[in-house]
């Protein structure tokens, strides 16, 4: 009964080291880590067209060692998932555009007793989805340019 449940959330479209470190750090805050994977509609509205569907992303996240359970979030009211999970701690990624104070206030307004904690940043070459996409584009562009130059 003294177990602490930690909730983390994200899109996790291209799984990378930054995601793994976020989830490892979140797991260290408690005994059980539940990860909410953004549903496809939420990703479309807030970021981009997802590369992988929500079920594939949830299955990948569920397979990670620190994760005890992965669920797909609801479209619309993100606090509905929080109400169902009833976490003791909500771990926010270092680059997530959520204000801890605003989340804490909404939790209090809804009678949810959870602490909001911002995770740290571990800077690596490919620790972000946009960094990975940029590296692929750069590589592809360089390859095409070399083929063009060698072909002349």
How are the elements arranged and paired?
Elements: E1 5-10, H1 17-27, E2 32-37, H2 40-46, H3 54-62, E3 69-72, H4 79-85, E4 89-92, H5 100-109, E5 115-118, H6 129-151
Parallel strand pairs: 1-2, 1-4, 2-3, 4-5
Explain the overall architecture.
- The protein has 152 residues and is of the alpha/beta class.
- It has helices spanning 17-27, 40-46, 54-62, 79-85, 100-109, 129-151, and strands at 5-10, 32-37, 69-72, 89-92, 115-118.
- A 5-stranded parallel sheet has the order 3-2-1-4-5, sandwiched between helices.
- The longest helix has 23 residues, at 129-151.
- The protein is elongated.
- It starts with a strand and ends with a helix.
- 26% of the residues are buried.
Short description:
By secondary structure, the protein is an alpha/beta fold. The chain is built from six helices and five strands. A five-stranded parallel sheet has the order 3-2-1-4-5, sandwiched between helices.
CATH architecture: 3-Layer(aba) Sandwich
Principal-axis shape equals: elongated
Order of strands, main sheet, comes to 3-2-1-4-5
Computed over alpha carbons, the radius of gyration is 18 Å
Return the CATH topology. Rossmann fold
CATH superfamily: HUPs
Helix content: 40-55%
Proportion of residues in extended strands: 15-25%
Can you tell me the CATH class?
Alpha Beta
Number of helices: 6
What are the secondary-structure elements, in order, as H or E?
Answer: EHEHHEHEHEH
Averaged pLDDT? 89
Query: What is the total tally of β strands?
Result: 5
List low-confidence stretches: none
């Amino acid at each position: 009964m003294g177990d602490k449940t930690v909730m983390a959330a994200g899109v996790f479209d291209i799984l990378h080291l930054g995601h793994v470190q976020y989830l490892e750090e979140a797991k260290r805050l408690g005994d059980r880590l539940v990860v909410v994977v953004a549903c496809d509609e939420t990703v479309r509205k807030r970021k981009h067209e997802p590369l992988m569907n929500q079920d594939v992303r949830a299955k990948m996240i569920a397979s990670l060692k620190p994760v005890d359970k992965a669920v797909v979030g609801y479209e619309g009211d993100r606090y509905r998932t929080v109400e169902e999970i009833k976490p003791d701690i909500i771990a926010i990624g270092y680059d997530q555009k959520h204000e801890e104070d605003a989340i804490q206030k909404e939790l209090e307004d809804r009678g949810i007793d959870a602490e909001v904690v911002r995770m740290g940043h571990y800077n690596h070459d490919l620790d972000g989805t946009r960094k990975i996409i940029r590296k692929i584009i750069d590589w592809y562009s360089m390859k095409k340019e070399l083929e063009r130059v060698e072909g002349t």
